[in-house]
Structures are given as structure tokens and as C-alpha cells.
Amino acid sequence: MPVRRTLKTIHPLAKLAWVLNTSVVAGVMSTPRQLFWLAMTIVVVFALLSGLSLRNIGKYWRILLTIPVLLFAFHLFLYPAAGGSTQHLLFRWRFLHVTTAGLADAALYSLRLFCSVFALVLFLATTEIKAIIVSLIRVRVPVP
Asked: How does the average pLDDT of the chain come out, rounded?
């Protein structure tokens, strides 16, 4: 079995557990550096084990980048600029304020979202929907 097709052969529920675990780990991490390394780990897993080309995953890049970038911009510019001693004002234009605390929090939130969404995209790109449904039925997940 080629190494590049490993993710396609893993049981769908195991991959789903990995996605949930990755999202929880991303939510717990407290520095952008930790989240950057988590994102790089996901990229390495994608590159080495998925068996997919960048063209196959290219259709997901709009979601992978647009949503975290919008969250970053929204949080960066609309972070409350209540003049505390921990905040340093970097930029101000009318009601838009960029502070060091806003920049740090925006990086954290957008990287957390990026890691979670990228793990989900990797899961969906390497798992057939039918296999997911069959696996969930076998473990008796209730159907609405």
C-alpha cells in the first residue's frame, strides 16, 4: 500500500475523532506560535498522507482563507479599545481601532478557525460521504 494513500484507508470514525480532537486542541492553545505549528502539522499530514494533489484541494482554498481572514479583520478592527494598560494603540481611524491586544486576539481566533476548518477539509476530501453515513449508522447515531 503506498504511503500517499494512507488517509483514504483509515476508518471514517477515526478520522472524525481526529478532526474533533484537532479542533479541541486548537481551541485550547493560547499562543499564535503553537497554532502555527499545529497548522503546519496539518499541512504535513495533508501533503504526506492524503494522496491528493493541491489541485484537488484547491476548490476549498476560498473557504480555508476567506473565513479566517474575515474573522481576523473583523476582530482586529472592532476589538474594544478601552484604554487599559495592556493595550497599545497602533492605528486609529474614526471608529476603527487597532491595538496590540486586538492584533494578538485576532491572530489567535483566526488561526484556531483555520486549523479546525483545514482538518475538516482534509477529512471531507479523503472520506466518501457514504462511508461516513454507514459508519455513523453502525455505531447507532440517531437519525432525525
From this structure: 80
Burial string for 7-35 (b: 16+ CB within 10 Å, else e) reads bbeeebbebbebbeebbebbeebeebeeb
User: Per the structure block, which three cell numbers stand in for 120?
Assistant: 475538516
Please, are residues 38 and 25 in contact by the beta-carbon 8 Å criterion?
Answer: yes
DSSP-derived letter for residue 101 is H
- Output the nine-digit C-alpha cell for 132: 461516513
Burial of 62 (0-12, 13-18, 19+ CB in 10 A): exposed
What pLDDT does residue 28 have? 93
CA distance 106 to 70: 10
Q: What is the dihedral of CA 15, 21, 25, 27, to 10 degrees?
A: 100
Cell 461516513, residue? 132
Per-residue pLDDT averaged across 26-49, rounded? 85
Distance CA 44, CA 81 (A): 38
106-138, pLDDT tens digit by residue?
Answer: 888 889 998 898 888 888 888 888 998 889 889
